[in-house]
Structure formats: C-alpha cells, structure tokens
C-alpha cells in the first residue's frame, strides 16, 4: 500500500454556532425556566396556605422564638412600652386571630420581622432609630398587616421550596445565574405584599391616633440620609422608600386622613 | 447495533479488512464530540445510585455521542478520499462535571 | 460599617444601581472579556497549528498496530506529545448551563480540537527532531485535571496525550 499524505478538511469537529449566540440562547432559556419554576413554587405555597388555618398556626407557634435572637430582659422598659403599643394597635384590628407578642433582639441592625404565631421581633437598633412613637407605631402596624395577609408563612414556604429545589437541582450552575434570576422574580412578588401591609398598617395608625403624622418619617429620613449602614438592612428587604412614601401619602389623601396632628414622644 | 449511520465507508478496529486489500493510506482522521447530560438524566441517575441498575439515560447519551463522533471521523475520511477507516479506537473522558468527551480516531485508507 | 456623613447623598437609585452592577454587570463584563481574549488566543493557536501541520505534511502518522510492510525500520522508539489546556471562565459558565438542559457543548469543541492537534504535532516534531521518519500505532488519551480545591466542581484543565512508535527507515544508501 502506498502512502499519500492528505489533510482532512477544516472545521468538521467544530460547530458553526457562534459562542455568543449559544451563550445568549442558554441564558435566556434558562432564565425563563427559572421564572416559571418560581411562579410554580409561589402558586404551590398559596395552595398549601389554604390548608393551614390560622387557628392551627396560632396554636402551634404560640411560644415560638427563633434561636439566634438575643432577647432583652423582660423588665426592659422599652419592651414593656412596645408591647403596650402593639396591644393598642391590635385593639383596632377586629377579629385578630393571634395573641401578638413583641420581643426585642439586642442588635445594632435596624430591622423588624414577623414570625409565625403572632411574634414580632424588633431590634434595639430600630428602637434607637425611631424618633417618635408614631414612627414605631407604623412599623409595628406594618408587621400586623403581614400577619393579616399571612405573608410570613408565604415567605417561609417559598424560601423552603425554592432552596430545596435549587440545592438538589442546580448544583452545576457555577455562575449562580439561576439564583439571581429567581431572587429578582421573588422580589417582584414580595413588593405587592409589602404595599398591602403598608396600607393596613396606615389604617391601624389612623385608628389609634386619629392622624397619620410622622408615620412614614423613618423612610423619609432614609431617603435623605447619606448614612448607609443603619437604615440599609431594613430598607433593602422592602421596596423603594421613595415609592413607599408616595403611596402612603396618596392613601392618606384618598381616605381623608389628616397628616398633621400631635406627635407622641417615645415613652422610655 | 450500528456504530454509524454511514453505510458506504467501512470501519474496522483491526488493521486489515477481511477480504479486502488496502491500496493507499492517507493519515489519521478523528472525530470528537462533547455532550452534557440534562437535568432529567441527572435526577434519574441520582435515584439509580441508590437502588443500582443500568443508567439508561446515560447509555443513550453516550451511544448518541459515539455515533456523532464516528460520523465526524467518517466525514474527515471522505474529505481525504478514503473509503475505509481501519484501526479505529474510541476514547471517553469526562471534561467537567456532567460533560463527557467522546473521541473516535483511525487511519483513513482506500481498500479494494 | 459607617460611611462618613456628608460624603455623598446616596439615594435609593444609586444603591439600586450599585447592586445591579455588582450582581449582573461585573460578572457579565468578566465573561465578555474572557470570551474576547479567549477567542483571540484560539484564532492565533489555530493559525499556528495549521501552518505547522502544513510543514509536516509528508510525515506519515498512522494508527496501524503493526508496521506497514513497505517500511523497513532501522530503529524504533516510543514518542509522546502532550498539552494541558485550561477551560476559560466563559466556557465553564456555558458548560454549566448546558449541564441543565443537555446537548452538545459547542464552545468546548474548538478547544479540544486544538489541544488534540497540538499534542499530535508535538509528538511528530519531537520524532522528527530526533531524526525519525514515521510514527505508527498512534494513540490519543484525554484526561481531566481536577481543581486544586478538590471539590470536584472546577476543572483546572484538560490534558491531551498523543503517543506512538516512531521508526527510522533503513537508509537506501547504507
């Protein structure tokens, strides 16, 4: 046999698709899939909520307290006053299903959270940041709004379902694209929740004081302030402060609630 | 099962093809392909890892890859004017997690 | 973390902008840069490969496992050529996404093609530099080098190895 050197044609082992085209198809396709999954998870949680009645939740979580919270002493004057304030606000909420408990987390972060069973945790950082009782009242009333809409259970359900899904399935996604897309989609859902909680909260404040002066002063301070650290945490989990203030103002106008009135000072 | 979809080019993993003589040889030709499994196969494999048994999804995946790699090798052979590829060898290796490279190579020859 | 007050009026929009940049803009910029630099390197490598293959055109390389009868060998030795290529960030991201939907990872193909041809070229060049005339029983191997982190996720690189038996033809002139 004779040797005749011949070179094969170029490009047989290489695809003609341009890498950037492949990349964009993949990213867009994946993004759509992730959005669909998040929507499905949200839907699933809604259905599940239907089967967990409020009374059962109240019973189950009556003495619930998360482990990583450092509570202040029960004798703390601030705790006493905050609980009193919460009780006063709750009295305006007809058929409130839970006994609302307030605990203070001894932390410099500014935050307020609602937990299953009617537990509201505010940080001492938040108590330092508010400058009048009306501001604190709105923060508490906002959390009561979440309880009314059962948002705290939604958040729990969604994060459980999605983190289960992502840890099992998306292990090979090194760049975290799917997680970022899921995060953005979820935030869209939570923004509606937050505005509904705001609306209910403002109504409670109006019922308690007869006016809504100073209710959203905390957020106005956040908007103008150059000081990132303190207010940032609370604000980053909630929608844009500017939008919130706007919507609250409009709501007060619509309902005819006075925006001026005597501001009550903090009682500790 | 057929190793390729191509009936005109003869493949053999030995040096000679029974009943034919090689008259010319042209050099090495190769075909390779890199494929990733998709989520469904991965989940099934995870379950099978618990109970054991054939991972049908992966078997199919690698079979398809092998056919594709062989087809590419044959295309290279045709482009040099060969009608057979002898001493064909396969190599499989994992390139990254979940992606396998399949490699076929041989010598392109003309037989009569 | 306390910023000095009065440094700048950081309003919501700036915060939002910074968050977007860090979460999306920066990774995107890295990916796009990696892509452009990577494809430039790739084109240059392919050009070098093609020209060296042209220079070695007449050198017989086969996978026969016995030496063709027409050759008479004065001496023989084993020769190898190898190369380790790294998978750039862009390609790894694409491969990760492919791992979810399946299919051919088209961005890896030129990389593996280059690596293989380069390994073979090095084998041939080392044989020729030592005065050999042909190589038979060529075999090709690929192996993955695991990431130093050892968590099995990353890939430090891919090694391509080509080896075969090189022969020196009996000189007709004695």
Main attributes of the structure:
heterotrimer; A: 268 residues; mainly alpha; three-stranded mixed sheet; 10 helices; 4 strands; 60% helix; C: 174 residues; alpha+beta; three-stranded antiparallel sheet; 3 helices; disordered N terminus
Short description:
With 268 residues, chain A is mainly alpha-helical.
**Global outline of chain C:** elongated
> What is the end-to-end distance of chain C?
85 Å
N-to-C order of helices and strands of chain B? EEHHEE
The separation of the N and C termini of chain B measures: 25 Å
Helicity level of chain C, as a percent range?
40-55%
The proportion of residues in beta strands of chain C is 25-35%
Main sheet makeup of chain C: 3 strands, antiparallel
Number of alpha- plus pi-helical segments of chain C = 3
Return Rg of chain C in Å: 25 Å
Strand order of the largest sheet of chain C: 1-4-3
Count of separate DSSP helical elements of chain B: 2
Helicity range of the residues of chain B?
25-40%
Q: What is the largest interface, and how many residues per chain?
A: A-C, 40 and 47 residues
Spell out the helices and strands of chain C N to C.
Answer: HEHEHEE
User: What is the topology, as strand order, of the major beta sheet of chain B?
Assistant: 1-3-4-2
- Described by its quaternary structure, the protein is heterotrimer
Name the average pLDDT of chain C: 81
Query: Which residue ranges of chain C are poorly predicted, with pLDDT under 50 across at least 5 consecutive positions?
Result: 1-9
**Gross morphology of chain B:** elongated
Largest sheet of chain B: 4 strands, mixed
Write the layout of secondary structure elements.
The complex is a heterotrimer of chains A (268), B (112) and C (174).
Chain A: E1 2-3, H1 19-50, H2 54-60, H3 77-90, E2 101-105, E3 112-115, E4 119-123, H4 124-129, H5 133-149, H6 151-169, H7 177-209, H8 217-224, H9 228-236, H10 241-255
Parallel strand pairs in A: 2-4
Antiparallel strand pairs in A: 3-4
Chain B: E1 10-11, E2 22-38, H1 39-51, H2 56-79, E3 84-96, E4 99-111
Parallel strand pairs in B: 1-3
Antiparallel strand pairs in B: 2-4, 3-4
Chain C: H1 12-55, E1 73-85, H2 89-101, E2 102-104, H3 108-129, E3 134-146, E4 155-169
Antiparallel strand pairs in C: 1-4, 3-4
Helix pairs in contact in C: 1-2, 1-3
